[in-house]
Amino acid sequence: MSAVPVIPFAEGEARLDWRALCDAFADGHRRPKAEVADSFLYRGEDTLLSRAAWIDGLGIAVKSATIFPGNTARDLASVNGGVSLYADDTGLLEAIVDFHLVTKWKTAGDSLFAARRLARPDAREILIVGAGTVARSLREAYGAGFPGARFTVWNRSRARAEEMAAAFPGMAVADDLEAAVAGADIVTCATMSTEPVIRGAWLRPGQHLDLIGAFRRDMREADDDALSRARVFVDSRATTVGHIGELLIPIASGAFAEEDIVADFYQPDAFARKGAEEVTLFKNGGGAHLDLMTARYILSRWQAAA
Description:
Elements: E1 6-7, H1 9-13, H2 18-29, E2 35-43, E3 46-55, E4 59-67, E5 79-86, E6 93-98, H3 99-118, E7 125-129, H4 133-145, E8 150-154, H5 158-167, E9 172-173, H6 177-182, E10 186-189, E11 208-211, H7 224-229, E12 231-234, H8 237-240, H9 245-253, E13 261-263, E14 280-283, H10 288-305
Parallel strand pairs: 1-6, 7-8, 7-10, 8-9, 10-11, 11-14, 12-13, 12-14
Antiparallel strand pairs: 2-3, 3-4, 4-5, 5-6
């Protein structure tokens, strides 16, 4: 029996392409709907999160994340982990893939996959709200998906925004968020905010709003007005509606209804922009089924290059 490959970050990433990942997502969503499950174990402030997904015909993935806040004092990353990928027909372990590689490509690829369907094809001005690790991944993904686009970054700390802009020549730094939103064709938001940072009153016809940051029940990045002004889409109803504050909070208050969600990725015919003037809004929830699709794509590229 051949050894199970362990795919590290740099060597794995060198083989990947953002548009090809979008094709893998399209293929994954043509298959039977995924079964997903999350589990948590705790020891004081330390956490083990395991996310599992099974797609008939594509296989099984278990993505385990260890969150150890005390690691920062040891000069170690606080979040670590790995993704175990299993064969669909036998259940045998096929690969172990770097946690950060899967997370990076899954998260930014999820948003790009949606934007290629929901943003105007002539979108050229892209605003990134936030300047962390995910924001940099979004710059890479959107740069591949919208060649020729001009990028601007806004962050609460201008110094962080300037650091990000320096890493991507030609990127501008915005000081006024409202003005930056008004000037953008695509707004992609990756913050850790629990209060809305994007106001619906700032949006103009034809824009696409991509919301990534909120993942807990108390987090959101856009206000009620943004939801009411836009046609709203999600990657998966099952992993967003009852779990993430971006939708959970306005549904609970009556400002928004689950029935107002136009479509998720399992409804490809409905997951589309209708006209040039409408505002589209996408909530990126990043469920475990997308980790599976991403890990399977990474393994296919690794095997092709072997």
